[in-house]
Write a structure and sequence with these properties.
The strands form 8 sheets. Strands 5, 6, 7, 8, 9, 10, 21, 22, 23, 25 and 26 form an 11-stranded antiparallel β-sheet that branches. The chain has a 4-stranded mixed β-sheet with strand order 18-19-11-20, with no helix packed on it. The protein has a 4-stranded antiparallel β-sheet with strand order 14-15-16-17, with no helix packed on it. It has about 425 residues and is mostly beta strands. The protein contains 2 helices and 29 strands. Helix 1 (about 5-25) runs antiparallel to helix 2. The two termini are about 20 Å apart.
Length: about 425
Amino acid sequence: MSFQQGLSGLNAAAKQLDVIGNNVSNASTVGFKASRAEFSDLYATSLYGVSDTESGIGSQTIKVAQQFQQGNITATKNPLDMAISGSGFFKLWSDPTATSTFFTRNGQFKLDKDGFFVNNGNYLVGEPVGGGDDAPIKIDRAGLPGTASTTLDWQFNLDADQKSPLIDYTASPTALKAPAPAITPSDSTSYNFTTSMRVYDKVGSAHTVSLYFQRQAVAGTPPAVNNTWNVSYKLNNNAVQNVGSVSFTADGKLTAPFSFTVPGGATAANLPVPGQPNQLGDAGIVVNLAGTTQYSGSFTVAKAKVDGNAKGELVGVETADDGNIIAKYSNGQAQSVGRVRLYTFDNAQGLQPNGENNWAATAASGDAKPGFPGEGSFGKLQSSAIEESNADTTAELINMIVAQRFYQANAQTIKTQDAILQTLLNLR
């Protein structure tokens, strides 16, 4: 008579309750993957195998298998949070030198004092800007330095019905003004249109380039406007500089490309700020008026695009669907600081749990296979979201009842065996 079967059943039931308890306790743990206890039967064997009358000697726990089904995705208000929808793991290093490597589904990331993306003190690893091997993703908290403007693309429509400031329309008959008035910013009658654009020097200081258009006229009785416009610019409050003229065909298009350069470098006479060193780029700023037209209608600015920027402070971070982490700055600029890589395994259940929602690769799991979110079999990445635990509390509570009954039944077999043994002992 043996108590082995009942005892092994008690051990199996206790292990099942342990697993269920762990699942329930982690029902609110982000990125947690529930487990299940798996059992097998036991038989005593001999040289000739198992006897036809062998009843078995109980059960044993063969594995506590983690279940990597997808958990629910929940939106958060933290832009650093990331959730994987589909297969894949984030890769973490224990320190920037990769002393230890872990994998996780917990996307609750934060920025540490040095600007690294961290999760429970471990560093998020990804592709650095420009490509290359894995490296911790980091944002420079010093901000984005100022850069000098080099090109300014401006495109306008100059009203074809405009009169010329060079003609005295108050005279009878009208006549050309003598001498021809120069473009003077303080005299709005000396030009037809003006507009301004902000540009930046090498240290990120802002300066204003103002552009002026003055329609030309030809002598005659009466004088008449033509399709040529004088162009001048002014940098900040410096003197106006004449840079030539633009001409249009009869159908309102430029007769030839037109551009000019706002000079830079130490020898430039037209300094950005009088009395201060010229910090404009050495090559100056090329102003291009390509695409400007002369059609009937109001004066419009169709395009105004300048490169360069002022110094910017970090104001926000977001993660794109493709894994690019974008830093946003107070100067309106945005740039990638790295790209999140995901990793899959041939056998995810072979991963070794390390606690803190981390796993380590083993021989059973196979090597980690890198890829990017949304590519091939890799899951998609969602910013400002987390993946909830996949533990189903309702199902676990039902399993707990079943395990309890399992435990009670095995205890009953031991009790019955004990009663029978007691009966034998009482025989006389």
